[in-house]
Write a structure and sequence with these properties.
With about 450 residues, the chain is an alpha/beta fold. It is built from 21 helices and five strands.
C-alpha cells in the first residue's frame, strides 16, 4: 500500500543505505525487527487517516465464497466489469439457486478447503510423510451437500495420486473409491495392476468400457485391458496401429515458432493458413451452443460473473440439457451454419465464455470456417465435444488451412524434431479419420541452406 518513495521517506532514519528496489526495501525493513505496535505507530504518524492494512481477511474470504461460490474469484471481478475491461453475458439469476443453501453446506465446504490447504502446504514444504494422516481425515468425512461434491472429488483424486507415489496404495484406492470422478476409475485400474490384482484391474476396465465417463478414461481402459487379459492367460483382440496422414516439411530453423514456420511453408497451397490450436473449434462450439451453455438451469449460475455454468465440465452437462441441445442440433442441421455462427458472433461479442476466444478468432476466420468446413463435419465435431466437454476441448490440430469452396480445408498438427503426439491429439486424429475429416500430421525437420 506504500510506494518505494514513501517507504524511503518513512524509514529514512532507520535504513542504512538506499535500496536498489522495493523488494530490497521491504527486506531491509523486515530486518529492523520492529514490533507490530511500533510499525503501526510509524505508519499512522506518516499520514493520519490513511488505510495501512486490510483487516478481517478471513471474513472477507468467506463473504467472497458466499457470493462467487468458489475461491478463485475475488472483488477484482467488480472492478474489471465496472471499468469495462470484461463483459459478462446477462443470464437470469435466482436467489434460491445460490451455491450454499444452508450454513451446514458452507461449513462442510470450508472444512474441505482447510484440508485442501493443508495438503497443498505439505506438498510445497516437502512434508509428504504427513499426507496419510490428511487422507484419513478426508476418508472420515461424510459429504452431505451437493455444493461440496466436486471439491471433495478433486481433493480425493489429487491426494490419492500423491499417495500412489508414496506406495500408500490401499489409502489411494480408498480415496479413489470415494471420489468416483475421472480419473479415479482409471487410476484404480492402474493401482490394481501395480498390486498384481489382474482380475480386479480387468473388472475395472470392463466397467469403464461399459459406461465411460469420458474418452480419456475409455482410451486408458482400452490400453490397460489387453495387458490384464494376457496376464490372466487370455488372448486379447489385436489393436489397430495408428496410421495418420503425414506431411514431411523441411524448413529453416529460426526464432519463429515451428507452427508458424509450417504455416508459412503450406501457405502457397491454400487461400489462407491460420495457427489456431484449440481456439477455433472451441469458439465455433461456443457460438453454436451459446444459448444451451447459458441455459438458466437450477444451480448452475450463482452470480453475474460466470463465463460458463457451474456444471460445464461435469459428465452430466449433456444429460441435463438433452432436449434443448437436440433441438439446437436439428436447427443447425436444417439451417445455414455460416449465418447462424456469424449472427451469434455479432450478438455475443465480447461477452465472456470459456469456449470463445475473441482475441484470436476473428469474424473473418469464423466465416471462412463455416464456408469451407462441411456442416456434417462440424456437427460431428460438436457432438463429440458435447459428450466430453472437459476432455475434448483440447487436442485439436495446430493449423487450419482454407481453400475457396466448401470441402476445401485441412487440419494440420505440427510436430517439430523430437516432438511426439499427445494422447488427446491421437484421439482427435482417429476421430477425424473415422469421419472422413481431412487431417494430417506435419513432421518438421530443420534444413541447412
Amino acid at each position: 500500500l506504500y510506494t518505494r518513495a514513501e517507504l524511503a521517506a518513512l524509514f529514512a532514519d532507520h535504513l542504512p543505505a538506499r535500496q536498489a528496489n522495493k523488494a530490497g526495501q521491504l527486506a531491509a525493513i523486515d530486518e529492523l525487527a520492529l514490533t507490530d505496535v511500533a510499525l503501526i505507530e510509524m505508519l499512522t504518524a506518516f499520514e493520519p487517516g490513511r488505510i495501512i492494512a486490510p483487516l478481517c481477511l478471513e471474513v472477507i474470504a468467506v463473504l467472497q465464497l458466499l457470493f462467487f461460490g468458489n475461491r478463485y474469484q475475488s472483488l477484482t471481478e467488480f472492478v474489471l466489469a465496472d471499468l469495462g475491461v470484461v463483459t459478462y453475458f446477462a443470464y437470469p439469476l435466482d436467489r434460491s439457486a445460490r451455491k450454499f443453501a444452508t450454513r451446514a453446506a458452507l461449513e462442510e465446504y470450508l472444512a474441505l478447503c482447510a484440508l485442501s490447504d493443508t495438503y497443498r502446504e505439505q506438498l510445497e514444504e516437502g512434508v509428504t510423510d504427513q499426507l496419510p494422516a490428511v487422507a484419513e481425515q478426508v476418508l472420515g468425512l461424510t459429504i452431505e451437500h451437493e455444493s461440496s461434491t466436486n471439491r471433495h472429488a478433486r481433493l480425493c483424486n489429487a491426494l490419492a495420486r500423491e499417495l500412489e507415489r508414496l506406495e500408500e496404495l490401499e489409502l489411494a484406492l480408498a480415496l479413489y473409491a470415494q471420489s468416483g470422478r475421472h480419473p479415479a476409475r482409471e487410476r484404480t485400474a492402474r493401482v490394481r495392476e501395480r498390486c498384481g490384482d489382474w482380475a480386479g484391474a480387468r473388472a475395472q476396465c470392463e466397467a469403464i468400457l461399459a459406461a465411460p465417463q469420458c474418452e480419456e478414461e475409455q482410451d486408458a481402459a482400452t490400453r490397460i485391458l489387453p495387458r490384464m487379459l494376457r496376464k490372466l492367460g487370455e488372448k486379447p483382440q489385436p489393436r489397430p496401429r495408428d496410421d495418420f496422414a503425414r506431411i514431411d516439411l523441411a524448413v529453416m530453423q529460426g526464432d519463429t515458432r515451428v507452427e508458424l514456420l509450417a504455416a508459412e511453408a503450406l501457405a502457397s497451397d491454400w487461400q489462407a493458413v491460420h495457427y489456431v490450436e484449440n481456439s477455433l473449434m472451441n469458439t465455433l462450439f461456443g457460438l453454436a451452443f451459446w444459448q444451451q451453455i447459458f441455459e438458466p438451469l437450477p444451480g448452475v449460475f450463482h452470480h453475474a460473473y460466470q463465463g460458463a455454468p457451474a456444471d460445464m465440465y461435469d459428465s452430466e452437462f449433456l444429460a441435463r440439457r438433452q432436449s434443448s441441445i437436440a433441438d439446437r442440433i436439428e436447427e443447425l442441421r436444417a439451417s445455414d451454419i455460416e449465418s447462424l455462427l456469424l449472427e451469434a458472433f455479432d450478438t455475443y461479442y465480447p461477452c465472456q465464455c470459456h469456449w470463445v476466444d475473441w482475441r484470436y478468432i476473428t469474424r473473418e476466420i469464423v466465416a471462412s470456417a463455416a464456408r469451407c468446413i462441411p456442416k456434417a463435419h462440424l456437427l460431428a465435431i460438436w457432438q463429440r465435444q458435447l459428450f466430453d466437454p472437459a476432455g475434448n476441448r483440447r487436442g485439436f490440430p495446430d493449423l487450419v488451412a482454407f481453400g475457396k469452396a466448401q470441402g476445401e480445408y485441412a487440419l494440420v498438427e505440427v510436430k517439430g524434431p523430437g516432438d511426439a503426439l499427445q494422447d488427446s491429439q491421437k484421439r482427435w486424429l482417429r476421430f477425424f479419420a473415422r469421419q472422413g475429416i481431412p487431417a494430417s500430421v506435419a513432421w518438421v525437420e530443420w534444413r541447412d541452406d
